[in-house]
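Working notes for the structural subgroup meeting. M.R. asked for a predicted model of this chain before we commit to crystallization trials. I am recording the input and output together here so anyone reviewing the notebook later can reproduce the run.

Input as submitted:
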Amino acid sequence: MYRIFVALLLLLPVSLFAQFVVGATGITVRNGATLTIDSLILQPTADITIENNHLTHRYVPVPGSPNASVKRVYEWDVPILITGNLQMYVANPELNGNILASLQLAHSPLTGNDGFMTSTTSNVNMADNSVSNNYSVTTIKQLTAVSFSSVLPLRWLSFTAKKVDHTVQLDWKVSEEENVKGYEVQRSAEGQLYETIAFVPVACNNCGLQEVNYTYTDIQPFSGTNFYRIKEVDINGSASYTRVQLVAFDRALSEVKAGPNPADKFIQLFNLEASKKYSITLLSVSGVVLKKESVENKNTCIIETEQLPAGAYVILIETADKRIQKIVRVMR
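Returned structure, recorded in C-alpha cell form:
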C-alpha cells in the first residue's frame, strides 16, 4: 500500500510547476500548476488546497459487472474538491481484464465499494497507458478506471432514517442499478454488530440512470440508540453499504440495571442515559433516606455501601417524569 502524507509532498516524487504554497498542514496547488503523485497527475483550473490528508494507493479492484475496475485504486482519507484535469497511468498487468482503449475514470465521494460514477468524457492515451478526464467542482474520495461496458457498484443517492411515532422510517434512493439482487436493512444497538431485519427486493434492475426510491419501516426499534445501514447485494455476491444513520428513543427506566446484587462495597447502576438528569435515592426498607444524589451526563452511577449493615435496601431512580425502584441486598 502506497501512503502519502500531503504535508510532506516535497519529500516524495512530486513535480510542481507554476505557483504553489506549502503550509504546516498541507499544500495549495494553484491554477495552472501540475502535481504528480505516484502515477496520478493533477492539473487544476482552480486553486486546490489539500490539508491534513493522506492518499492511499491500493491494488484491490472495485467489484463490478461484467468486469471489476483496474487494479489501481486511489483513496483520500478526506474527500477533495477538484476542478481541473486528473490523469492516471495504468500498467498492463493492472488492467484486470479491462481493455485499455475503452477505459474511463471512475470516482466516488464515499468510502467502500459504492457511489462510483464513470466519466464518459474520459480520454485514453494509448502511447503512455494513461486515462484522463476534466472535472468541474467534483468531490472525489476514491479514483480508479474501468471499461465503459462495465458498471461498478450502484450509486447511492441518499439514505435517511427518521422517527415516526414509535417506529423508524428508512428511505433510500439509488441509480445505476445493475445486476442487483436486493437490499438488506441492517440495525445495531451499539454501531458494531449489525443484524439484518428485512430484505427488500430490487425494484428496477438494469434501468440505467433512472433513480429508484425505496422505503422500509422498522416497527420495533430498540429503546435507546438505533444504528441503521442498508446493504446492497449483487447477484454475484458482492455488496456495498450506505453510511450509518442514527435514531434514538428514550430508554425505559426498567432498563436501568443494578449490580452486583447482593453487594458488598458498592452497587453500580448501568444503562443510564447521559442526556437525562436522574435523582438517585438510597433508602432503608422502612423508608429512611440514607443517601441522595443527582446524576447527569453519565451512563453509570456508583453507590457506596461499604458502611451499611447487611440487609435489604431500596434504590429509587427518578427522572423529571418517571420513577422506578430497585430492591438490592448488602451482605457481609
